[in-house]
Amino acid sequence: MSAGPGRAGLVLAAELIFEKSRPGRHGLSLPALDVPLSSPPKALTRKEDCNLPEVSELCVVRHFTRLSSWNFGIDLGSYPLGSCTMKYNPRVNEAIAQLPGFTNIHPYQPEELSQGALRLIYELEHALSEISGMDRVSLQPAAGAQGELVGVKIIRAFHESKGNPRKKILIPDTAHGTNPASCTLAGYEVVTIKTENGILESHTVAKLMDNDVAALMLTNPNTLGLFETEIKEIAKIVHDKGGLVYCDGANLNAIMGVVKLGELGIDVMHFNLHKTFSTPHGGGGPGAGPVGVKKILAPFLPSPLVEKSNGLYKIYPVGKNSIGRVKGFFGNFLVLVRAYAYIRALGAPGLKRTSQMAVLNANYIKARLKDSYDLPFDEIEKRPCMHETVFTDKKQQQYGVTTLDIAKRLLDKGFHPPTIYFPLVVHGALMIEPTETESKEEIDQLVDSLIEISNEAKENKKLLKEAPHNTIVGRVDEVGAARKPKLRWRP
Amino acid sequence: MSYEIPDDLFYTKEHEWARREGDFVVVGISAYAQESLGDIVFIELPKIGEELSQNDTFGVVESVKAVSDLFSPISGKVVETNGTVTETPELINQDPYGEGWLIKLTMGDDSELHNLMNATEYEEYLGQEAKEATEP
């Protein structure tokens, strides 16, 4: 019997909905025509049938219900996808985001009739400032990567205002994978800093820092789950040469209420509200990636912001130095509503406890798994990790078993696999982030399952090589799918 | 694990190889690199005529595991690219030092070649890198 909740059971197949189509079958009956028939002009009509599936309502219901039973989500079981913070999002936040006062509001409604929404934006900005130690926050960016681009554009605008946009941005190899792309898109050359033992060292930054460097962009805690302890000295080195420091806030779940990034010398950062502050994510959105800055960068923030005067909330433009608007209106407003509800429900002590529990859970996993799985760097072995920890497949490789096989086998045990083969600085990485919302019992099941898998690697390699066995679709041909993708269905 | 490391090539720390062919240098990625990447599914190469400096990125290689930049071992002008590997990137996995070559550059300053590692040095470097990556 498997340690995890995964069992093989009855799963119902679903053909493509197009294959279920039968001529004349339909899901609704229109009333008889009671006006003269009028045909659209010939130029506007289709030349061929659009081939919509002809199916009954029950057929549609069964089709999508069956598909949903093939899926794996946080509502089914643990989802320890490192770097993604797949925490449980309390249902009350959904209920609040569906209040008609939020869903029926129109962005062109006059300010005096939008006071509630504007107050929420104002108070959320101030809550995020308090959590991060930044002076101003724009809630407009719609995702983490957009937040990064906005942050780097602010850096560029700042340097341009001083007469020289500079050329390069330094990024350690332990930063998030999207960081180099954001810098490139903003017109900067990326210089990758190779870290020793998983930690960015101030002397390495000192060697690379010059007057051409616009900024250092790092992730703290970094993607190895380690806190960058030299960050204050590093920030000083960068500032002394006129550069700025950007922190990717994707790992904020580890440090809320414990450390303020603004006090570590960070000048600009983004938040992933959909990770840290409770919005279901992983399906491609919607998200929210607010950008926080220190006072010197506030004039460059996207416009507009919300201010309060004489008890009224007002929308005001940032001014001529603003990088402009980056998203319609105030971004993905209902994501902001969820984040606000989450922050207000937990309060400062609750947020701190959230981070402490997230870190405790990751350290518990690290301690329980370190005999079965290899830890890649001395620093990871020696120090406590933050909210996530990274193992490798080194111990399993001697049996011909790789990270991919371990991840696939974990599906059979009833868990979503961790992030694999990232960060790139670790060969065969397995990056586990349990989050604070998993109980000790759930974590024990996950750990026991991973230990079971490490034993199976020794005893029954074939079982792993052919995994998953319990899912409706077995091992997929990832190479074939990437090399010869079939991007559309044809009859 | 041991990897094929031909004696007549020069190697970079980023695992590209360079082979001198008269006034030109042919560039590819090493057996270790293709093995570490896993099945390669996409490759992006520069335009012919592009001028590269040593260590410039000249393309992108994507496998099912990861996406990595390609770094030029030497400075030179791109005179030829391997059109076959863009269509069938599995050639890089199958024959990294032969059919899986990537670009051909003009040879500028040949001292740059000698700044690279030779086969023995690269083998040592791989031993070291493999050790660094797996030390507890």
Subunit arrangement of the protein = heterodimer
| Radius of gyration of chain A, taken over Cα atoms and rounded to an integer in Å | 26 Å
- Tell me, rounded to a whole number, the average pLDDT of chain A: 95
The CATH class of chain B: Mainly Beta
Residues in β-strands, percent of chain B: 25-35%
Task: Tell me roughly what share of residues is in helical segments of chain A.
Answer: 25-40%
Domain tally of chain B: 1
CATH topology of chain B: OB fold (Dihydrolipoamide Acetyltransferase, E2P)
How many domain regions of chain A? 2
| CATH A-level architecture of the largest domain in chain A | 3-Layer(aba) Sandwich
Query: Biggest interface in this structure?
Result: A-B, 18 and 15 residues
Helix count of chain B equals 5
Indicate the radius of gyration of chain B in whole angstroms: 14 Å
Mean pLDDT of chain B: 90
Features:
heterodimer; A: 491 residues; alpha/beta; Aspartate Aminotransferase, domain 2; 2 domains; seven-stranded mixed beta sheet; 12 strands; B: 136 residues; alpha+beta; OB fold (Dihydrolipoamide Acetyltransferase, E2P); three-stranded antiparallel beta sheet; 9 strands; 27% helix; globular
What does the secondary structure layout of this molecule look like, with pairings?
The complex is a heterodimer of chains A (491) and B (136).
Chain A: H1 57-69, H2 91-97, H3 100-103, H4 115-132, E1 136-138, H5 144-161, E2 168-172, H6 179-185, E3 189-193, H7 202-208, E4 213-219, H8 231-240, E5 244-249, E6 268-271, H9 273-276, E7 291-293, E8 305-309, E9 312-316, H10 333-369, H11 378-382, E10 389-391, H12 394-397, H13 403-412, E11 419-420, E12 430-432, H14 440-459, H15 461-465, H16 478-483
Parallel strand pairs in A: 2-3, 2-4, 4-5, 5-6
Antiparallel strand pairs in A: 1-7, 6-7, 8-9, 10-12, 11-12
Chain B: E1 10-11, E2 16-21, E3 24-29, H1 31-37, E4 40-44, E5 51-52, E6 57-63, E7 67-71, E8 76-81, H2 83-87, H3 90-94, E9 103-106, H4 111-114, H5 119-134
Antiparallel strand pairs in B: 1-2, 2-3, 3-9, 4-6, 5-8, 6-7, 8-9
